[in-house]
Structures are given as structure tokens and as C-alpha cells.
Amino acid sequence: MTPTKLPVVILISGAGSNMQRLAELARNGELPIEVKAVISDRAAAPGLAIAANLGIPTTALSPKSFVDRTQFDAALADTIDSYGPQLIVLAGFMRILGPAFIQRFAGRVLNIHPSLLPKYPGLNTHQRALDAGDSEHGVSIHFVTDELDGGPLIAQARVPVLPGDNAATLTARVRHQEHQLYPQAVHWFATSRLQCVRGKALLDGQELTAPVQISTHDVSS
Description:
CATH class: Alpha Beta
Helix content: 25-40%
Radius of gyration: 17 Å
Order of helices and strands: EHEHEHEHEHEEHEEEE
CATH superfamily: Formyl transferase, N-terminal domain
Strand content: 15-25%
Strand order of the largest sheet: 3-2-1-4-5-6-7-11
CATH architecture: 3-Layer(aba) Sandwich
Shape: globular
């Protein structure tokens, strides 16, 4: 009997390296998901071509085609729903999603953010960590809520900030961890180990009062 694969839609705005990592693991049978579609708010997003080459349906939805954010969010939500996903994965999706969208998919939206939240929500996180003289930096996975980069934390991976680092070298070190951490969180969700209940992240039925700290290891663990 073929194991059930969780239907997933991934949202991107750029190159979509985390999308590619998830899609390749799914294709290789290492992640129990089926990527039903990759959707971008930018028709020129390089990740759309990558997804298409992997045989994944793609859609671009430009916010400029809509009167306001509310209408864009509604059209985006309808497009997502047409693929019947049980999980929505934000992988470098650079738009803030409104309350109606979040409520519609409550507990089913994951996001990856390149900092050790609650440090450095928003943009330019690597440079901000360098400017602050931080000795470590990293990446966080969380459920999405109305609060920008503020939903319940699930997991984090930490990397050292090394002498001589610049934003590019630090980005590369963090991205390596992103490609380990995001598949792990998605695997937990796909195997019903991870849930969001009443605004709390639960792993194996226990509330996560602090994010799980993870370093590189096999995504199936």
C-alpha cells in the first residue's frame, strides 16, 4: 500500500531554494508530501522555472492586478484552495498576508525566517546580526499568525558568526541550515507529529514552550 502523501502548496517570491529542496526530497521519496503547486507574487521569480522543470504546476499572481491587498489575498487563497492542500509552505514569500487569509488557513501555514526569532523580524536580518556584533545567528520555523514573523515557534538552527563574515558568507551558512531545518518541520507536520492548536505549537502532543534546537541531521528522524 502506497503511503499517503500530504498535499502541499509552496509560495515563493524569488529563487525558491527552500522550495527546490522540499520538492526534490518529495520527488525522491524522502519527504512524505506531494507539492501540488508553486505560486509566486512575481511572474519573473526564478523559482517558478525551477518548479516547472520539476514537473510542478506553477502560477503567478501579481498584486498589481488587484485593487488592494484584501482582493489579492482573497484571489491567492482561492488559487491555493483549488489545489486542495493540507499545508501551505512560505519559502521566501515576501508579502505580508492579511488576517482573513491567515484565518482561512489557520494552523496550516508554515514560514521560514532567517534569524533567531524573536530577534530581527522583517528584512536584512543577516546584516542586522553583523551590525549588532552577534556571536551567533540562525534560522527559525514558525506557524504563521497575524503578527509579522511572530507566530508560534517550532524549531531553530544556530550558526556561529565568524570573524570576517559579511552578509553573503553569513547568508550561505544560514541557508545550509535552512535546507535541513525546513524539511524536518514539514516532515513533522506531514506525519501528524506537529500541530498548531489554539495558537500553540505542539510536537508529539506537547506544547513547545521553546523552539526545538536542531543541527544538520536526517529529515526523517
